DNA sequence: ATTTGTGCAAAAGCTTTGCAAGGAA
DNA sequence: TTCCTTGCAAAGCTTTTGCACAAAT
């Protein structure tokens, strides 16, 4: 395997992501990093996000809207997706232990992980509707 | 709203999907329907799959591989995704009742649905490795 | 000096859409 | 006739990639 060299672009992507709880898309990352490094390219953002994800430093999250999101929290957890605004939030709940064993019953294959997505309308959207 | 008119293309898409347990992609549907209607276009396939999904006759399934899949089974259920070949299978397990209530605890928003994806290696792939 | 990372632009996938022609009601 | 659906092609979006140059070791 190849050695990893320092890059301030990668570093700033990591730092930017670390503070975010909203699971930004590659484009959001790009738009924000550009404030600091106006010449950074979208390709570089994608390359680094992929790299960081494969290193296990961040996590790629698919929420079914055709765009990948990135999460600095690598501890297993569930997500909520708002049907109206599409925002993604963490669910304050421990992942169910033993769910994989349960799912394995009568299933032809070896299960070793799971994710869950919850759907609904976020509070911000509900407040808007009330008015 | 607009009235729905019969189309043999849509009908054949529905029939094709009805027999499948493997959650085909739009392209797979297209390739297969073409055997019957060689002039059908990919756009028509996409339009009808979207329409059928919005009518609730089929279900769009996102499995995190950047491609949408389509499922004739509209009853809520969980899916398994093979890490090696990417195949998608149904999990023989009832969706957990009360999971949404559990997830709602301490969460800012109204939850009214959920999906779950299980990961692992399917039997077909495991058998290949053994040899 | 060597090897990795970047910026730019082009290309690649998947999906959607505009439009004129065809088909159902 | 009226309105829906189709085929075709173009466009849209997100993501990946080739390449020459820049930066790190």
Strand proportion of chain A, as a percent range, falls in 15-25%
What is the straight-line distance between the termini of chain A? 57 Å
CATH class of the largest domain in chain A, please?
Mainly Alpha
Shape of chain A: flat
Low-confidence segments of chain A: none
The domain tally of chain A reads 2
Largest beta-sheet characterization of chain A: 3 strands, mixed
Q: CATH homologous superfamily of the largest domain in chain A? A: Winged helix-like DNA-binding domain superfamily/Winged helix DNA-binding domain
Counting DSSP E segments of at least 2 residues, the number of strands of chain A comes to 5
Provide the helix percentage of chain A: 25-40%
Q: Count every helix of chain A, treating DSSP H or I runs of 4 or more residues as helices.
A: 5
Specify Rg of chain A, calculated over alpha carbons.
17 Å
CATH architecture of the largest domain in chain A, by name, is Orthogonal Bundle
Strand order of the largest sheet of chain A: 4-3-5
Stated plainly, the CATH topology of the largest domain in chain A is called Arc Repressor Mutant, subunit A
Chain pair forming the biggest interface: A-B, 37 and 37 residues
SS class of chain A: alpha+beta
Oligomeric grouping of the chains: homodimer
Order of helices and strands of chain A: HHHEEEEHEH
Q: Output mean pLDDT of chain A.
A: 95
